[in-house]
Amino acid sequence: MKRLQFQKFIFYAVLLLMTTVYIGPFIYQFFISISQSKDVFGDPVKLLQPPNWTFQNYANVWVDLPFKQWLFNSLFITLVQTIMNVFFSALAGFVFARLTFPGRKFLFGLLISSLTVPVIILLVPKFIFMNNLRLVNTYAGLILPNLITITNIFLMKQFFETIPKDLEEAALIDGCSYFRIFWQIFLPVSTPALAAVAIYTFQGSWNEFLWPVTLAITSDKFTLPVGVGFLKNQFQSDWPLLMAGTLLITLPTLCIFLVFQRYFVQGVAASGGKE
């Protein structure tokens, strides 16, 4: 009994240590965001002294910066990419999981193999392609390259393969087309997987920095990560303002994950097995 209690104590101690290491930077970031620059770089540092705390940095982010425009850009791009990813990934996953056609395995293997190519290598070809289409510094150029993700197709394919074939066969006997089977039978029972794809896509699109900073030229097309990133420059950086903006960016994805984490876990877990 004592040995079991000691093992539980060690387990929870390690878990607490790992949690502290993970959330420690976020706590420190919050204290910087409610501090003044003179307290951040003072000697000694005065981050933990309540009389010096202020939420003015959050007000300055909203008022002094084009934060509303950046917020609109991020919301518009993220929502379009999330909705399109959920639909096209589910449709492609259904095709690869339930339909039989020549070259299906080869095509799916080709898609999966593309994941081995580093994103940074594709950056220049994508930019040249968008430039030839005259889509640089446009919403279309920011949205199109990420309308569908191979990882999401794989996730949906694995989930659809767990659905019993009896449902599909019964629908075919009743005269349903494959698209109707997909729309009326497979989608309604795929809520966990669809939620996982939506959360995964929303997080990736919302936090995307590399592609927007490459394609967006003027500040009116900046997304939140790009706009806040430009608050840091070579000569001077307002760290409290930067940390306040960063925390504001983090809140939407954090809230969405906390609310829908049950569906996310169920979707990923269900996609890992087959009937």
UniProtKB/TrEMBL annotation:
Report the subcellular localization: Cell membrane
Q: Which UniProt keywords apply?
A: Cell membrane, Membrane, Transmembrane, Transmembrane helix, Transport
For this protein's source organism, the top of the classification is: Bacteria, Pseudomonadati, Bacteroidota, Cytophagia, Cytophagales
Keyword Transmembrane attributed: yes
Q: Does the keyword Transcription apply?
A: no
Homology family: Belongs to the binding-protein-dependent transport system permease family.
Q: Please report a single Pfam family linked to this protein.
A: BPD_transp_1
Record's Gene Ontology CC terms?
A: plasma membrane
Q: Record's InterPro entries? A: MetI-like, MetI-like_sf
Residue stretches making up the ABC transmembrane type-1 domain: 71-260
Transmembrane ranges, per UniProt, are 9-31, 70-94, 106-128, 140-160, 181-202, 239-260
Which protein, by its recorded name, is this? Carbohydrate ABC transporter permease
Q: How does it sit in the membrane?
A: Multi-pass membrane protein
| GO BP terms | transmembrane transport
